[in-house]
Amino acid sequence: MSTDASARAPRWTNALLDSMRQTADPVADAVVDAIYREGSVDAVNKMLSNIFRSDDPIPPGMPEVAARYFEETSKLPTWADPWKISAGERLFTRVGWSIGGALFCASLPQAYGSAHGAHVLIQTQGMTRHVNQRIFETAQFLFDAIDEGSMAPGGRGIRSAQRVRLMHAGVRHLLLHRKGQAWDSARLGLPINQEDLVGTLMTFSVITLESLALLGEQVSAAEAEAWIHTWNVVGSFLGIAPQLYPATAAEARDLKLLIQSRQWAPSEDGKMLIRALVKMMQSFLPFPARGLPIAMIRRLSGDRCAEILGLPTSLWRYGIDALVKGMSPFERVLGAELQRRFFAPFTHLLMKGVVETEREGKQASFRLPLALRRTTL
Q1: What is the pLDDT of residues 185-235, one digit of tens each?
Q2: What are phi and psi of 10, to 5 degrees?
Q3: What is the DSSP string of 66-79?
């Protein structure tokens, strides 16, 4: 693959994304298929259980073919730029708490707005029976992937992405081979297909950048491009097809909007997921502030997303809008600092709740990244 970003710039069309809905991940799928052939569906379930229960870089008890996969897929892609990766990590170091807040109020809600992707989450049953645990695992993955040194040889970010990739293949195999429950690939696409994968990647990359702007955080053009590049590198370890990577933040926005135009739709699955997410966030807040989660979702994800997910209107949202719109031109120059002061306690309370909550069935507590341990909650 060329190291020239412009040489990799894709041209996204509905036809391309239609084909991506029928494309999975041949590398990881081959590993799971081999495990199934050598054992049974129980062997696949055991592998997934080991991945869920352990935070070790390579979970214990992996079949030999899976252990070999971890070694064979551990190198950075040839086009990865170490300087940009370092710059992306430094952005996380600088505004990590706001990025954590964006995960809960923008990344996850906008992912749930995709009806077909939400259906996969519900079908795995992990999001309904162990919703907090699945959300915590997503936060842990985000933090592992972008923390300092995460993409160094043997780095935790690389291992975390490899584990998620293998988990996706395991879930895909189980959904496609359920007895008496045929998966409708013609209508839904393959489970965890390439369009859904890159759409999720956009929630961590460009949607995070958009949220930082709404939260009053200043991000330079160079930082934004580095952030997009860093998540492209993470995407390579997740098995996302190279032709789908956006080369710039502007391209990432185009891809995000195209996928949302194709996939956003009201669904009972999405509504179930967002209710669980809001309930979890509210549990971390004092009673007077429990209207904030919906207000923040509406602010960071937009009213259309909130309405697709069936969220009610929020008096808090009107108050936030009035605060921002009521600023004079001079005050808007200082508005970033005002917004940071307003939103910071909310994001800190959310992340404090995540860190202090017991993780269901996990062998380790939530691991706060180095970048965030240097600041206080």
Answers
A1: 999 999 999 999 999 999 999 999 999 998 888 899 999 999 999 999 999
A2: -85, 165
A3: HHHHHHHT-SPPTT
Residues with Cβ within 8 Å of 369's Cβ and at least 6 positions away in sequence, in order, are 92, 96, 143, 144, 146, 147, 148
Return the structure tokens found at 154: 């043997």
Summarize the chain as % helix, strand, coil (round to 5): 70, 0, 30
Cβ atoms of 63 and 43 within 8 Å: the answer is: yes
Distance in angstroms (rounded) separating the CA atoms of residues 111 and 141: 15
State the Cα–Cα distance between residues 118 and 110, nearest whole angstrom.
10
Cα–Cα distance between 366 and 285 in angstroms, integer? 19
For residue 120, give the H/E element and its range. helix 115-123
- For the chain, list residues with pLDDT below 50: 1-9, 127, 330-334, 363
Residue 295 and residue 306: Cα distance in Å, rounded?
Answer: 10
298: which 2 tokens?
A: 């509406």
Torsion of CA 1, 224, 117, 179, to 10 degrees: 40
CA distances from 102 to 142, 176, 361 (A): 11, 33, 26
pLDDT for 322 equals 56
Return d(Cα 106, Cα 47) in angstroms, integer. 31
CA atoms within 13 A of residue 291's CA, in its CB half-sphere: 10
Sequence-distant (≥ 6) Cβ neighbours of residue 155 within 8 angstroms? 149
Answering whether pTM is above 0.85, one says yes
Q: How far is CA 87 from CA 21, 35, 112, 140, 233, in A?
A: 32, 39, 29, 20, 13
Q: What is the rounded CA–CA span in Å between residue 330 and residue 239?
A: 47
pLDDT in tens, 141-173: 998 899 999 999 888 899 889 989 998 998 898
Q: Give backbone dihedrals phi and psi of 246, rounded to 5 degrees, phi first.
A: -75, 140
Domain residue ranges of the chain, discontinuous segments joined by +: 1-377
Residue 279 to residue 12: CA distance in whole angstroms = 37
